[in-house]
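[Automated response] Your request has been received and processed.

Submitted sequence:
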Amino acid sequence: MLQKERRFLADSEERAFDREHREKLRYNISRYSVAVERGKCQFSDIEHVRQRAARQKEQSINNLEQHLIEFESKFTARGGKVIWASDAKEAVTEITRVLTSRGVRNAVKSKSMITEELNLNEVLQANGINVLETDLGEFIVQISDDKPYHIVTPVMHRSAKEIAGIFNMKYDLHPDSTPEEITMYVRKLLREKFVHADAGITGANFLIADTGSVVLTENEGNGILSVSWPRVHIAIAGIEKMIPSIHDLQYFLPLLATMGTGQKVTVYNSVLSGPRRNKEVDGPQEMFVVLLDNGRTNLLSKTEQRSALRCIKCGACLNVCPVYKNIGGHAYGTVYSGPIGSVITPNLHGMEYKHLSFASTLCGLCTEVCPVKIPIHKLLLLNRRDAVAQGHTSTGERRMMKGYKMVMSKRKRLNLFSATLKNMGFSMFFRKGWGKRREIPRFNQPSFNQQWRKKHKPE
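Generated structure:
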């Protein structure tokens, strides 16, 4: 546990004081912020839409077992196959089994954070299956041996010049290639890969219970190509992706587009309800949906924190978070970063990640922008409470807080010490935790309490 926390603190410090890194992050996020404000104009009453979406997601979570059963029934009735996976190991084992048993050697993959959660690419490559990312951002991440930096924008930490340098090194493009030139090159390169791929792998933005459908929303067309050409399609989804009805998309698709990228709606929105049927000219011969738990039922069991499962992965909370805007995505050391990542990761993967819940100013901006009204800053406090209650604190920290509580709980005890002694004690016990770059606050003499009593002393 301490090793992950120390790594987080070290990486955070390095990133926070890297001026070039912060400038790139600030510039890229500012562009999204402007677009989001413009995108909100499509709603006459966005608060009403947020309330409806939040209510529908909450209803789905509270009745998740029923909706999952309904989804499986409807999906399998159209020839689809469902794989239930309790954890990451079971999921990758089943996916590998399906692909190898069908002789798959080349797979194309659209952007999917849940496959990062499974570490899927590395596992499939180790089993002789070539996996190619087809989203432009994820493709850049893959060829530069990097990790996604943001839920929506994987290469938010890269400048256009850096990306041009990567393509110069990998494909001998001109080092001053424009984003448009790079995009056209990648488009031509990937078209051949789509045609010859044996399997397509995608995530799922939503699962629809009443129709047994998988919803994909994207801007590049790589997702629909990944499911149209290959003979096998595997969609991987966390069980929390469920929504009750196809009619709910009228709320979720515009909200996801606006809060994620500032659009009215994303360019490509696909509703997939099974493999290719008679007289259909494209689509896979076989379609699988992997329903992944991987700690989600643990979060579901916590009535106070289960609202975090409402998240639709729009990334809005990352874009406003003052901590994320300083340290960036990689410093978190987890698949899901930012405020929502700090909430769900300790519940999905254990309190060894409890330090993430303490990496927050609790300013509440994340809650304010969340399209499905998750009280994120309150959930961070609940995680902190649980970490302490479960004993995930050091002996020194417990002793310090016990002493602090004893002194601060009584005004007479606090007044026993002069300002000089208070300053000495604060410097001795808090200097390391306060940080070497911040000035330790000083206690004044006389104190505010003493000044108040003197001023309001009865005549």
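Summary generated for your ticket: The radius of gyration is 25 Å. The chain has a mean pLDDT of 93.
If you did not submit this request, please reply to this message.
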